[in-house]
Amino acid sequence: MARIWRSRGPAAWALWPLSLVYGALVALRRWLYRLQVLRSEHPGPPVIVVGNVIAGGAGKTPVVIALVRHLQAQGWQPGVISRGYGRSTHDCRAVRPDSPAQEVGDEPALIARATHAPVFVAPRRITAARALLAAHPGTNILVCDDGLQHLALARDLEICVFNSDGMGNGFLLPAGPLREPWPRPVDWVLHAGTRPAGHNPSFALQRRLAPHALRADGRQVPLASLRGGPVHAVAAVARPAEFFAMLRAQGLQLSSTEALPDHYDFNSWKRPSDKHITLICTEKDAVKLWPLHPDALAVPLMLELDPAFFAALDARLAPWRAAPLSSPSA
Question: Which of 50, 70, 192, 216 lies 20 to 30 Å from 60 when distance is taken between CA atoms?
Protein backbone atom coordinates (compact mmCIF):
# COMPACT_ATOMS: atom_id res chain seq x y z
CA MET A 1 0.00 0.00 0.00
CA ALA A 2 2.89 2.37 0.66
CA ARG A 3 3.52 2.67 -3.07
CA ILE A 4 -0.15 3.47 -3.78
CA TRP A 5 -0.21 6.09 -1.03
CA ARG A 6 2.63 8.14 -2.51
CA SER A 7 0.58 9.57 -5.38
CA ARG A 8 -2.98 9.93 -6.62
CA GLY A 9 -2.66 7.24 -9.25
CA PRO A 10 -5.35 4.93 -10.68
CA ALA A 11 -5.18 2.53 -7.72
CA ALA A 12 -5.61 5.35 -5.20
CA TRP A 13 -8.58 6.78 -7.10
CA ALA A 14 -10.15 3.30 -7.30
CA LEU A 15 -10.02 3.12 -3.48
CA TRP A 16 -11.16 6.71 -3.01
CA PRO A 17 -14.90 5.87 -2.61
CA LEU A 18 -13.99 3.63 0.33
CA SER A 19 -12.05 6.50 1.86
CA LEU A 20 -15.26 8.57 1.84
CA VAL A 21 -16.99 5.88 3.90
CA TYR A 22 -14.02 5.76 6.28
CA GLY A 23 -14.03 9.55 6.59
CA ALA A 24 -17.74 9.56 7.41
CA LEU A 25 -17.17 7.05 10.20
CA VAL A 26 -14.30 9.13 11.60
CA ALA A 27 -16.47 12.25 11.55
CA LEU A 28 -19.38 10.41 13.20
CA ARG A 29 -17.17 9.17 16.00
CA ARG A 30 -15.78 12.66 16.70
CA TRP A 31 -19.32 14.05 16.64
CA LEU A 32 -20.46 11.48 19.23
CA TYR A 33 -17.63 12.54 21.53
CA ARG A 34 -18.46 16.20 20.97
CA LEU A 35 -22.08 15.54 21.97
CA GLN A 36 -20.81 13.46 24.94
CA VAL A 37 -22.71 10.42 23.76
CA LEU A 38 -19.25 8.88 24.02
CA ARG A 39 -17.24 10.30 26.90
CA SER A 40 -13.59 11.11 27.37
CA GLU A 41 -11.96 10.60 30.76
CA HIS A 42 -9.04 12.54 32.23
CA PRO A 43 -6.69 10.82 34.72
CA GLY A 44 -5.78 14.01 36.64
CA PRO A 45 -2.18 15.04 35.88
CA PRO A 46 -1.53 16.82 32.58
CA VAL A 47 -1.57 14.47 29.59
CA ILE A 48 0.60 14.89 26.51
CA VAL A 49 -0.33 12.72 23.53
CA VAL A 50 2.36 12.00 20.95
CA GLY A 51 0.83 10.51 17.81
CA ASN A 52 0.38 10.79 14.10
CA VAL A 53 -2.34 10.99 11.50
CA ILE A 54 -0.69 8.67 8.98
CA ALA A 55 -0.71 4.89 8.98
CA GLY A 56 2.63 3.24 9.52
CA GLY A 57 5.65 4.52 11.37
CA ALA A 58 6.19 8.22 11.82
CA GLY A 59 8.90 8.02 14.46
CA LYS A 60 6.69 8.58 17.51
CA THR A 61 8.68 6.42 19.93
CA PRO A 62 12.00 8.33 19.60
CA VAL A 63 10.01 11.54 20.16
CA VAL A 64 8.41 10.06 23.29
CA ILE A 65 11.84 9.07 24.62
CA ALA A 66 13.28 12.52 23.91
CA LEU A 67 10.23 14.16 25.50
CA VAL A 68 10.38 12.02 28.66
CA ARG A 69 14.10 12.67 29.07
CA HIS A 70 13.51 16.42 28.72
CA LEU A 71 10.72 16.35 31.28
CA GLN A 72 12.92 14.42 33.69
CA ALA A 73 15.71 16.98 33.23
CA GLN A 74 13.22 19.75 34.01
CA GLY A 75 12.27 18.14 37.33
CA TRP A 76 9.01 16.49 36.27
CA GLN A 77 8.20 12.90 37.19
CA PRO A 78 6.71 11.59 33.95
CA GLY A 79 4.96 8.30 33.31
CA VAL A 80 4.22 6.75 29.93
CA ILE A 81 1.05 4.97 28.86
CA SER A 82 0.52 2.95 25.70
CA ARG A 83 -1.68 0.30 24.18
CA GLY A 84 1.35 -1.93 23.63
CA TYR A 85 0.72 -2.72 19.98
CA GLY A 86 1.70 -6.22 18.84
CA ARG A 87 1.99 -7.78 22.31
CA SER A 88 0.73 -11.28 23.06
CA THR A 89 -1.13 -10.19 26.21
CA HIS A 90 -4.33 -8.16 26.52
CA ASP A 91 -4.34 -7.04 30.14
CA CYS A 92 -3.13 -3.94 31.93
CA ARG A 93 0.42 -4.34 33.15
CA ALA A 94 3.57 -2.50 34.11
CA VAL A 95 6.47 -2.41 31.68
CA ARG A 96 9.86 -2.80 33.30
CA PRO A 97 13.28 -2.51 31.67
CA ASP A 98 13.56 -6.31 31.67
CA SER A 99 9.97 -7.03 30.55
CA PRO A 100 9.77 -9.39 27.54
CA ALA A 101 8.81 -7.32 24.51
CA GLN A 102 6.37 -10.03 23.39
CA GLU A 103 4.33 -9.44 26.55
CA VAL A 104 4.34 -5.63 26.65
CA GLY A 105 5.09 -4.50 23.08
CA ASP A 106 8.44 -3.63 21.59
CA GLU A 107 7.98 0.16 21.74
CA PRO A 108 6.92 0.32 25.42
CA ALA A 109 9.79 -2.04 26.27
CA LEU A 110 12.24 0.26 24.49
CA ILE A 111 10.81 3.35 26.24
CA ALA A 112 11.13 1.69 29.66
CA ARG A 113 14.74 0.70 29.00
CA ALA A 114 15.71 4.07 27.55
CA THR A 115 14.08 6.30 30.18
CA HIS A 116 13.52 4.16 33.31
CA ALA A 117 10.25 6.07 33.71
CA PRO A 118 7.12 4.20 34.84
CA VAL A 119 5.43 2.67 31.78
CA PHE A 120 2.06 0.88 31.71
CA VAL A 121 0.17 -0.72 28.83
CA ALA A 122 -3.53 -1.49 28.52
CA PRO A 123 -6.11 -1.71 25.70
CA ARG A 124 -7.67 1.49 27.11
CA ARG A 125 -5.16 4.22 27.88
CA ILE A 126 -7.22 5.55 30.80
CA THR A 127 -6.91 2.10 32.43
CA ALA A 128 -3.13 2.23 31.97
CA ALA A 129 -3.06 5.76 33.39
CA ARG A 130 -5.00 4.85 36.52
CA ALA A 131 -2.85 1.78 37.16
CA LEU A 132 0.34 3.78 36.67
CA LEU A 133 -0.78 6.54 39.04
CA ALA A 134 -1.83 4.00 41.66
CA ALA A 135 1.56 2.29 41.49
CA HIS A 136 3.56 5.53 41.19
CA PRO A 137 1.61 8.28 43.00
CA GLY A 138 4.49 10.73 42.58
CA THR A 139 3.94 10.85 38.82
CA ASN A 140 2.90 14.39 37.91
CA ILE A 141 2.67 14.25 34.11
CA LEU A 142 1.68 11.54 31.63
CA VAL A 143 2.94 10.99 28.10
CA CYS A 144 0.77 8.84 25.86
CA ASP A 145 2.70 6.95 23.18
CA ASP A 146 0.31 7.11 20.22
CA GLY A 147 -3.34 7.96 20.70
CA LEU A 148 -4.28 11.04 18.69
CA GLN A 149 -7.33 9.08 17.54
CA HIS A 150 -7.97 7.51 20.98
CA LEU A 151 -10.57 10.06 22.02
CA ALA A 152 -11.60 8.13 25.14
CA LEU A 153 -8.53 9.63 26.82
CA ALA A 154 -8.87 13.34 27.50
CA ARG A 155 -5.64 15.21 26.87
CA ASP A 156 -4.14 18.63 27.48
CA LEU A 157 -1.48 18.80 24.76
CA GLU A 158 -1.14 17.05 21.39
CA ILE A 159 2.00 16.53 19.34
CA CYS A 160 1.66 15.19 15.81
CA VAL A 161 4.72 13.59 14.19
CA PHE A 162 5.29 13.31 10.43
CA ASN A 163 8.05 11.35 8.74
CA SER A 164 9.74 12.46 5.51
CA ASP A 165 6.77 11.19 3.45
CA GLY A 166 4.54 13.86 4.94
CA MET A 167 0.87 13.34 4.08
CA GLY A 168 1.56 11.11 1.08
CA ASN A 169 -1.20 11.59 -1.48
CA GLY A 170 -3.43 13.31 1.08
CA PHE A 171 -6.23 10.74 0.86
CA LEU A 172 -7.83 9.00 3.82
CA LEU A 173 -7.48 5.25 4.34
CA PRO A 174 -7.51 3.02 2.36
CA ALA A 175 -6.84 5.28 -0.67
CA GLY A 176 -4.12 7.13 1.21
CA PRO A 177 -2.20 7.04 4.50
CA LEU A 178 -4.34 9.47 6.52
CA ARG A 179 -6.16 8.11 9.57
CA GLU A 180 -8.19 11.31 9.81
CA PRO A 181 -8.53 14.50 7.74
CA TRP A 182 -5.60 16.88 7.80
CA PRO A 183 -5.07 19.65 8.73
CA ARG A 184 -6.61 19.37 12.15
CA PRO A 185 -5.79 21.31 15.32
CA VAL A 186 -2.86 20.05 17.39
CA ASP A 187 -0.54 21.96 19.68
CA TRP A 188 2.63 21.21 17.74
CA VAL A 189 3.75 19.41 14.60
CA LEU A 190 7.15 17.74 14.41
CA HIS A 191 8.21 16.89 10.87
CA ALA A 192 11.21 15.12 9.34
CA GLY A 193 10.48 16.32 5.81
CA THR A 194 8.60 19.22 4.29
CA ARG A 195 6.40 21.13 6.70
CA PRO A 196 2.86 19.72 6.32
CA ALA A 197 -0.03 22.01 5.45
CA GLY A 198 -1.92 23.70 8.26
CA HIS A 199 -1.56 26.51 10.76
CA ASN A 200 -0.21 24.42 13.64
CA PRO A 201 3.11 25.53 15.14
CA SER A 202 5.70 23.21 13.61
CA PHE A 203 9.30 22.28 14.25
CA ALA A 204 11.76 20.27 12.19
CA LEU A 205 13.31 17.11 13.56
CA GLN A 206 16.33 15.23 12.32
CA ARG A 207 17.16 11.57 12.79
CA ARG A 208 20.59 10.02 12.57
CA LEU A 209 22.26 6.91 13.85
CA ALA A 210 24.61 7.02 16.80
CA PRO A 211 28.28 6.45 15.90
CA HIS A 212 28.20 3.26 17.95
CA ALA A 213 26.18 0.07 18.36
CA LEU A 214 25.12 -1.45 21.67
CA ARG A 215 25.70 -4.96 22.91
CA ALA A 216 23.08 -6.71 25.03
CA ASP A 217 25.13 -5.89 28.16
CA GLY A 218 25.15 -2.17 27.32
CA ARG A 219 28.73 -1.98 26.05
CA GLN A 220 29.34 0.21 23.02
CA VAL A 221 30.94 -0.90 19.77
CA PRO A 222 32.12 1.89 17.43
CA LEU A 223 30.47 1.55 14.03
CA ALA A 224 33.82 2.44 12.47
CA SER A 225 35.18 -0.88 13.77
CA LEU A 226 32.58 -2.75 11.69
CA ARG A 227 33.58 -1.19 8.40
CA GLY A 228 34.93 -3.70 5.91
CA GLY A 229 33.57 -6.74 7.74
CA PRO A 230 30.57 -8.86 6.74
CA VAL A 231 27.38 -7.36 8.20
CA HIS A 232 23.81 -8.65 8.00
CA ALA A 233 21.34 -5.87 8.80
CA VAL A 234 17.82 -6.78 9.85
CA ALA A 235 14.95 -4.38 10.54
CA ALA A 236 11.37 -5.04 11.56
CA VAL A 237 10.26 -1.42 11.49
CA ALA A 238 7.90 0.59 9.32
CA ARG A 239 10.70 1.98 7.12
CA PRO A 240 13.52 -0.60 7.03
CA ALA A 241 15.13 0.81 3.88
CA GLU A 242 15.77 4.05 5.76
CA PHE A 243 17.68 2.17 8.47
CA PHE A 244 19.80 0.35 5.91
CA ALA A 245 20.59 3.60 4.10
CA MET A 246 21.66 5.22 7.37
CA LEU A 247 23.98 2.31 8.10
CA ARG A 248 25.59 2.67 4.67
CA ALA A 249 25.93 6.40 5.28
CA GLN A 250 28.01 5.47 8.35
CA GLY A 251 30.40 3.61 6.06
CA LEU A 252 29.18 0.06 6.66
CA GLN A 253 29.22 -2.26 3.67
CA LEU A 254 26.17 -4.43 4.22
CA SER A 255 26.69 -7.92 2.87
CA SER A 256 22.95 -8.55 3.17
CA THR A 257 19.80 -6.87 4.43
CA GLU A 258 16.51 -8.29 5.64
CA ALA A 259 13.33 -6.22 5.91
CA LEU A 260 10.65 -7.81 8.08
CA PRO A 261 7.11 -6.67 8.96
CA ASP A 262 6.83 -3.94 11.57
CA HIS A 263 6.63 -5.39 15.13
CA TYR A 264 7.80 -8.84 13.92
CA ASP A 265 8.36 -11.07 16.95
CA PHE A 266 11.47 -12.95 15.68
CA ASN A 267 10.37 -16.22 17.33
CA SER A 268 10.56 -18.14 14.04
CA TRP A 269 13.30 -16.05 12.48
CA LYS A 270 16.41 -17.80 11.16
CA ARG A 271 19.66 -15.87 11.17
CA PRO A 272 22.32 -16.32 8.45
CA SER A 273 24.20 -19.57 8.90
CA ASP A 274 27.61 -17.91 8.61
CA LYS A 275 28.63 -17.28 12.22
CA HIS A 276 31.29 -14.78 11.13
CA ILE A 277 28.65 -12.33 9.91
CA THR A 278 27.88 -9.53 12.35
CA LEU A 279 24.16 -9.21 13.04
CA ILE A 280 23.01 -5.61 13.36
CA CYS A 281 19.52 -4.26 14.07
CA THR A 282 17.52 -1.32 15.40
CA GLU A 283 17.05 -0.70 19.12
CA LYS A 284 13.36 -1.52 18.75
CA ASP A 285 14.23 -4.94 17.29
CA ALA A 286 16.93 -5.58 19.86
CA VAL A 287 14.46 -5.87 22.75
CA LYS A 288 13.13 -8.99 20.97
CA LEU A 289 16.35 -10.21 19.35
CA TRP A 290 18.68 -10.13 22.36
CA PRO A 291 16.90 -12.90 24.32
CA LEU A 292 17.29 -15.13 21.25
CA HIS A 293 20.55 -13.81 19.78
CA PRO A 294 22.51 -11.98 22.50
CA ASP A 295 25.39 -11.25 20.12
CA ALA A 296 23.25 -8.94 17.97
CA LEU A 297 24.31 -5.30 17.87
CA ALA A 298 21.69 -2.55 18.11
CA VAL A 299 22.31 0.90 16.66
CA PRO A 300 20.54 3.68 18.58
CA LEU A 301 18.61 6.30 16.66
CA MET A 302 19.50 9.82 17.74
CA LEU A 303 16.84 12.50 17.48
CA GLU A 304 17.59 16.19 17.14
CA LEU A 305 14.69 18.51 17.94
CA ASP A 306 14.61 22.25 17.55
CA PRO A 307 15.35 23.77 21.00
CA ALA A 308 12.48 26.18 20.30
CA PHE A 309 10.09 23.24 20.59
CA PHE A 310 11.22 22.43 24.12
CA ALA A 311 11.04 26.13 25.03
CA ALA A 312 7.44 26.25 23.78
CA LEU A 313 6.62 23.06 25.67
CA ASP A 314 8.09 24.37 28.92
CA ALA A 315 6.14 27.60 28.57
CA ARG A 316 2.86 25.71 28.10
CA LEU A 317 3.58 23.46 31.08
CA ALA A 318 4.48 26.34 33.40
CA PRO A 319 0.93 26.76 34.83
CA TRP A 320 1.02 23.18 36.13
CA ARG A 321 4.11 23.91 38.20
CA ALA A 322 1.96 25.68 40.78
CA ALA A 323 -0.88 23.13 40.66
CA PRO A 324 0.57 19.92 39.17
CA LEU A 325 -2.58 17.84 39.61
CA SER A 326 -4.99 20.27 38.00
CA SER A 327 -6.13 20.05 34.42
CA PRO A 328 -7.30 23.03 32.37
CA SER A 329 -9.49 20.69 30.33
CA ALA A 330 -11.27 19.29 33.39
Answer: 216
